[in-house]
Write a structure and sequence with these properties.
Number of strands: 8
Strand content: 15-25%
Mean pLDDT: 96
Largest sheet: 6 strands, parallel
Number of helices: 9
Shape: globular
Low-confidence stretches: none
Radius of gyration: 16 Å
Distance between the termini: 18 Å
Structural class: alpha/beta
């Protein structure tokens, strides 16, 4: 275990750290001993990036950052710390400087865009009765129900927060595209991946919740990145 980097998992909108549950158990089974999952407030990109940086700074030795969904924007912003050796994007946003997740989504809207609704306090939710079909159509109804009820809504303004200095321009990257994603258009994922020139891009026939529906292949990609990020 000592030769493996620490893994820091960063969740996205409408979920918390426990969205990584199946990946965490698989990484542990494969001998990764230093596993961490950030619980971001989803109040602004600056807040979330700083929360992630605080966790990374507590870790001695190399760190591999893994982001799902909006968590990709967070690792893009927070991945500049010197002991971060690589970035793995799981059906995730990877904005360039001056880009926001909202801008990217508006350019090519995802299939379930209309199923996101604001509340009176400025938070954005996926309608509970639309969560399964929107976010996790390849999970069971029961799993999707739990995700829907426990979803963590972001402040709507977070969608418009721009990345300042994208870490993917300086760090090795890996990307997983979900070809049946209804929350980020798959072609947007392909475009973001292509411009990063990642060491590997994989495509999975998966929903936005690929980290839960296909934890094996997702963990394969993380394991590959962990083995070569520092080289």
């Amino acid at each position: 275990m000592a030769d493996k980097p620490a893994i820091v998992l960063v969740h996205g909108f409408w979920g918390g750290a426990t969205h990584w549950a199946k990946v965490i158990t698989e990484l542990h089974r494969r001998g990764f001993g230093s596993l961490h999952a950030v619980e971001n407030p989803l109040t602004s990109l600056a807040d979330d990036a700083e929360r992630t940086r605080k966790m990374v700074r507590q870790i001695d030795g190399p760190v591999l950052l893994v982001g799902h969904s909006y968590g990709g924007a967070v690792i893009t912003e927070a991945g500049d710390l010197p002991h971060v050796t690589g970035l793995v994007y799981i059906a995730a946003f990877a904005p360039d400087a001056g880009e926001s997740p909202g801008q990217i989504s508006q350019e090519k809207p995802p299939a379930a865009f209309e199923n996101i609704a604001p509340d009176s306090d400025g938070y954005l939710w996926i309608k509970q009765d639309k969560f399964h079909e929107s976010f996790a159509q390849d999970l069971s109804e029961e799993e999707a129900l739990v995700m829907a009820v426990t979803q963590k809504a972001p402040l709507g303004s977070t969608f418009g927060d721009n990345v300042t200095a994208p870490a993917w321009r300086a760090k090795p990257t890996w990307y997983q595209v979900s070809t049946a994603d209804r929350m980020i258009h798959p072609d947007n994922e392909r475009r973001m991946a292509e411009r990063m020139n990642p060491r590997r891009t994989i495509e999975l026939d998966a929903s936005h919740a690929s980290l839960a529906s296909q934890p094996g292949p997702v963990t394969d990609l993380i394991e590959e990145a962990a083995g070569s990020a520092g080289s």
